[in-house]
Amino acid sequence: MFPILLAVLLPFADPSQPKLTPQQQQRIEQVKASFEVHRQAALRLNDMAQSIQSEADARKFVDGIEEELFGHRGPIPSKLQSWITHSMRRRVARAEFAAVSDPANLIPEQRVVDVWNEYVREIGAPEDALVTVAEVHNLRDGMYTGSQRMWGFGQSLWIIPGIYALDSNGKVAAGCRAIEALKVLHDMENSFISVKSARERVQKGVLVSDLLRQPQPEAAQPISKATPPNGVTTPRGSIPVRARAKRLRLNSRMPQAKAHPATIRAGAGASRASIIATMATSVAA
Hints:
Mean pLDDT: 77
Radius of gyration: 21 Å
């Protein structure tokens, strides 16, 4: 992103400053070209997400998501691709098509909560990492609202708004589509601070979508730190679940460590690939 900003601001720079070398200019062009490839892919996937009419359409959409993640130097290492089996993609595609065909087939938010909480308990993460249906719904509302706002500024796989299940009022429904559910679980594992923000909004009884409709005050009020129901707090900006999973992964790689066998097994199963495989299988069950 920095090379792109540099290319935009360069014409306004002091002319006495040294010009870019041919190698630097080439690198900027490469970054811009790569960004455009991913932007076009995001646009296609968003269109596909909103026009699923058959299970075959859903399979193309799911395969497209996989290609964008793992193909042409995607954001997830290609060595994890072997975990996303053909059978698993088919199951996710069936669940995706079922969800868009009939709202009754949406994946209940309670199911997402159960999958997440089971994972949290398995790796021994802090108790405040456990979530409720209200918190997951509030988180989804924030994710969808944010995707809508950011989509006009720059298209990316991570902010595709077309993956969300909506009700008749255009707000997030009480259940999820399959890819949406996996995105929610992914974001919870990678950025738990977003869960804490949702928890605070639940305590205040507000949604991000509602807040954006309200007139903004002249001076922003300081946001108080959210406190879980059990009174246990986590340092600001920490990611307790991901940190715990990482520690378990490290333990599982040290055969001489005096770790309990159950802990080693949990650590081995907490690898990023295993998380993806387990959650995809559980959600699409």
